[in-house]
Specification:
Blueprint: E1 2-4, H1 7-15, E2 23-28, H2 34-46, E3 49-54, H3 64-69, H4 74-81, E4 88-90, H5 94-97, H6 118-121, H7 125-140, E5 144-148, H8 152-165, E6 170-174, H9 194-199, H10 202-212, H11 219-232, E7 236-244, E8 260-268, E9 271-278
Parallel strand pairs: 1-4, 2-3, 2-5, 3-4, 5-6
Antiparallel strand pairs: 7-8, 8-9
Helix pairs in contact: 7-8, 10-11
The structure holds adenosine monophosphate (AMP).
Adenosine monophosphate binds next to helix 2 and strand 5.
Length: about 280
């Protein structure tokens, strides 16, 4: 397994890959857990050459202290990956990804998803995500891009990026990997105290309660009860929303004729946690 830290080094490696070989790509910010590994294993199962990038992208953080506190543990990550049949890790520096500065010259025309839900709560976040993934895709030029449904809106935004940039890459959405008690795995979970980590399992529990009761109650009532239950456990909830799973249109109530998704963002112990389930 190669570890490339410079754009020119991975480019010269990729230049030698025969054009009939498929390339699977998994972009990450490191501090790898089972969620990331599930994407990498799926990529390995489906492609000839497999690349994982590890890069904590400063331009997608809308709070500086979130970026400053983000774990950067490349050595530990290399150990997690060493037994996998991964061909290369790309772990560039900020200067290597943004040689002309981090300023975005022109915003990506993402459309209505940009300022919607997560985009509204985290101004500039999706522009930053597009900025880094655009750079990475230009370097790796993968056949398939593996993305976790943990960041459900991000999958749709990056699908849009690929349309905008007219790349041939296929997006492969991958299911959320959870802790035993249901909490969606995330690099940010390590910032939770032991008690808060246990409590955080209730996010998934509340989402499932809403889903299970969709035939007996209105969404607004189930939403109110879930926010209240989480509040009693110490959560401060930004939103629990029912949306059209394809268009992200916010739904007032359940509608079995369209694909639906429940999305949540909530704070516990100073950590912002997001999750979602299909309905
Ligand atoms: P990150 O390192 O947080 O930027 O995540 C890198 C990729 O891993 C993204 O596509 C995430 O959606 C995905 N990912 C993160 N956590 C999980 C999880 N618990 N289950 C599945 N995919 C995940």
């Amino acid at each position: 397994m190669y570890i490339f830290k410079k754009r020119e080094d991975i480019l010269s490696y990729l230049a030698k890959v025969p054009s009939d070989k498929s390339i699977g790509f998994v972009p990450t910010m490191g501090d790898l857990h089972e969620g990331h590994l599930s994407l990498i294993n799926r990529s390995i199962a489906e492609n000839d050459i497999n690349i994982c990038s590890i890069f904590v992208n400063p331009t997608q953080f809308n709070q500086k202290n979130d970026f400053d506190n983000y774990p950067q543990v490349l050595e530990k990550d290399v150990i997690s990956l060493k037994d996998l049949d991964l061909d290369a890790i790309f772990a560039p520096s900020v200067d290597d990804i943004y040689p002309n500065g981090k300023e975005l010259k022109e915003p990506y025309p993402i459309g209505k998803l940009e300022h919607h839900i997560e985009g509204e709560k985290r101004p500039g976040h999706f522009q930053g995500v597009c900025q880094v993934v655009d750079q990475l895709l230009k370097i790796v030029n993968p056949s398939k891009l593996y993305l976790g449904e943990k960041d459900y809106q991000q999958v749709a935004v990056l699908q849009r990026l690929i349309e905008i940039t007219k790349m041939k890459t296929e997006v492969v959405p991958c299911p959320i990997i959870r802790e035993k008690h249901g909490l969606a795995m995330s690099s940010r979970n390590s910032r939770l105290s032991k008690d808060a980590f246990e409590t955080a399992g209730n996010i998934y529990k509340e989402l499932k309660i809403i889903r299970e009761n969709q035939n007996s109650s209105d969404f607004s009532e189930l939403q109110r009860v879930a926010v209240e239950s989480l509040k009693n456990l110490g959560f401060e909830t930004e939103y629990i929303l029912l949306v059209n799973a394809k268009t992200f249109e916010i739904l007032e109530n359940f509608n079995s004729e369209i694909p639906m998704r429940l999305l949540v963002a909530t704070w516990l112990d100073g950590v912002r946690l997001i999750d979602n389930i299909s309905v």
